[in-house]
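Hi C.,

You asked whether I'd gotten around to modeling the 333-residue construct. I have! Everything is below, sequence then structure, no commentary in between.
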Amino acid sequence: MVYLPAEWENQEFVQLVFPHKNTDWNEYLDEAISTFITIAKTIAKYQKCLIIAKNLHSIKSLFPNKKNLIFVKIDSDDTWSRDFGGITVKSDNNRCTILDFKFNAWGKKFEYQLDNQITKQLKFKGLLKSYHHKSLPFVLEGGAIESNGAGVILTTTKCMMEKNRNPHLTQNSIQNKLIEYLAAKKVLWLDNGFLEGDDTDSHIDTLARFVSEDTIVYQSCDDKNDVHYEELKKMKDELALFTQCNGKPFTLIALPWIKAIYDEDERLPATYANFLIINGAVLVPTYEDKNDQKTLSIFKKLFPKRDIIGVDCKTLIRQHGSLHCVTMQYPKV
């Protein structure tokens, strides 16, 4: 049986692609690199971290301790590994196959040709030897799907039906593709939910995430004057109607709201739902908000056997993504 592993299952490594001067990070490149270093060092305390960099020598020199770090020189357009990284399915005999979907920068919004080749480059360079590799003619980003590891895929209509991703396919056709490629037993479609400043057309990993087979955490909003209030309330109502493969409803856990953060006049898509689960720990985005500590406490209750680590993501959201968006885990073979 093939399935899409849940993020809390055992991992081999996490992929990071470092920013460089030819990316949109250039205006505050040192701040961005500092955040990526923090993420890489944190991951490396628990498991391997694959660092992809255009300027490999200079990035490598920033890590005096290279334990659990793997470095490779590959050029990139940007840094969003979650969306151009390989999506790995697993079979009962531990055979792992990396599904190399097409990436077109969220419906051709930005440059993407280099990013679309990164998984193939990793294969050619021998860094994915333990994995089988399959290229697929279908646009799909890792941030667009959530798996509970038991056959349920959670996604959003706004993203999957965006006209420049797979324009020739109907919603039913796309659902059939997800069932075929990811061996899904059930696909749950959220019609509501968004964050201002999000370029991804409402990726699920900014809104609602599985933390166990039967539990979903979701980004809530308790400010009735906020533009997100009604939409996120409707999203919660939708989630409450969803059921597992056994017909039982999911347990829902609300994540606290984050006070609006702006870069000049532009609102940024801050969300606590963009956390990363790794072996032995959960990395949770923080934003110097009054609810940071409350959120960390929620995750400590959800993952009592894992370390809960806050990572300052104020710099990441300036490019409209957060912690989960810049990472991609690969299951242990």
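If it helps when you're writing up: The chain is about 25% helix and 25% strand.

Thanks,
B.
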